[in-house]
């Protein structure tokens, strides 16, 4: 059983962009909060559009919608508007365990790869790079062209972990939720957070 208070007092930054697959970011937020972490959430304007289209989020009342969706969990959610370049997470002096961008659009990926800190999400990612803190990106696009791949390679060489939104089927998922949980579990594995989201290869049922 995962200790629900494993993250008490520790901060993670979570970015949700306008790539399809907003459910990945939502599930990550739920898991991190359930483990007691403080989640500093940044959602791009396009991310809000996709949350509305894919998950029926009310983008017209953002903070109250986040409270409705994520309130009552063990951890604390702090919402930072993407235009607030002066937010705490924009500074390297802010102590965060790391940052996850899930899902990550190719536009945001490109901005991070080229150091273009033109909004809070890309600035926070730049802080992770300059402070040598964990940065995990969940790219979601298909097919990929050479520029996409070159940007991923550039960031990988800087130590950024790439966890593409690619499902696996050896655990024989029966629902969409199980497919999503597999990817979320792989992200948590990458940053060393224990979980029980999927059965591992070789484990008994």
3D architecture notes:
The protein is of the alpha/beta class. It is globular. Helix 1 crosses helix 7 (176-190). The chain has a single domain, classed as 3-Layer(aba) Sandwich (Rossmann fold). It has 7 helices and 6 strands, in the order E-H-E-H-H-E-E-H-H-E-H-E-H. The chain has helices at 22-34, 45-55, 62-70, 106-113, 120-130, 146-157, 176-190; strands spanning 11-16, 38-43, 76-79, 99-104, 135-139, 161-162. It is 39% helix and 14% strand. Strands 3-2-1-4-5-6 form a 6-stranded parallel beta sheet, with helices on both faces.
CATH first level = Alpha Beta
Q: Per the principal axes of the C-alpha atoms, what is the gross shape?
A: globular
Strand content: 5-15%
CATH level 4 superfamily: Flavin prenyltransferase-like
Low-confidence stretches: 1-5
Biggest sheet statistics: 6 strands, parallel
Overall pLDDT level: 94
CATH structural fold name: Rossmann fold
Radius of gyration: 16 Å
Q: How many beta-strand segments?
A: 6
Query: Between the first and last Cα atoms, what is the distance in angstroms?
Result: 15 Å
Strand order of the largest sheet: 3-2-1-4-5-6
Helix content: 25-40%
Order of helices and strands: EHEHHEEHHEHEH
Structural class, judged by helices and strands? alpha/beta
Provide the number of structural domains. Answer: 1
Reported CATH architecture: 3-Layer(aba) Sandwich
Query: With helices defined by DSSP (H or I, 4 residues minimum), what is the helix count?
Result: 7
């Amino acid at each position: 059983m995962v200790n629900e208070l494993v993250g008490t007092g520790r901060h993670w930054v979570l970015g949700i962009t306008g790539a399809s697959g907003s459910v990945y970011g939502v599930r990550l937020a739920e898991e991190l909060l359930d483990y007691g972490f403080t989640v500093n959430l940044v959602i791009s304007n396009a991310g809000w559009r996709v949350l509305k289209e894919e998950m029926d989020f009310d983008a017209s009342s953002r903070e109250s919608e986040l409270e409705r969706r994520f309130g009552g969990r063990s951890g604390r959610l702090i919402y930072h508007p993407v235009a607030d370049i002066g937010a705490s997470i924009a500074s390297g002096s802010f102590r965060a365990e790391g940052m996850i961008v899930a899902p990550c659009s190719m536009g945001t990926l490109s901005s991070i790869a080229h150091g273009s800190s033109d909004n809070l999400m890309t600035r926070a990612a730049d802080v992770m790079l300059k402070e040598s803190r964990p940065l995990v990106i969940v790219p979601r696009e298909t097919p990929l062209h050479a520029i996409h791949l070159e940007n991923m390679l550039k960031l990988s060489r800087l130590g950024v972990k790439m966890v593409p939104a690619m499902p696996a089927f050896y655990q024989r998922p029966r629902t969409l939720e199980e497919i999503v949980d597999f990817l979320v579990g792989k992200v948590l594995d990458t940053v060393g957070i224990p979980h029980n989201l999927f059965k591992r290869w070789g484990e008994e049922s």
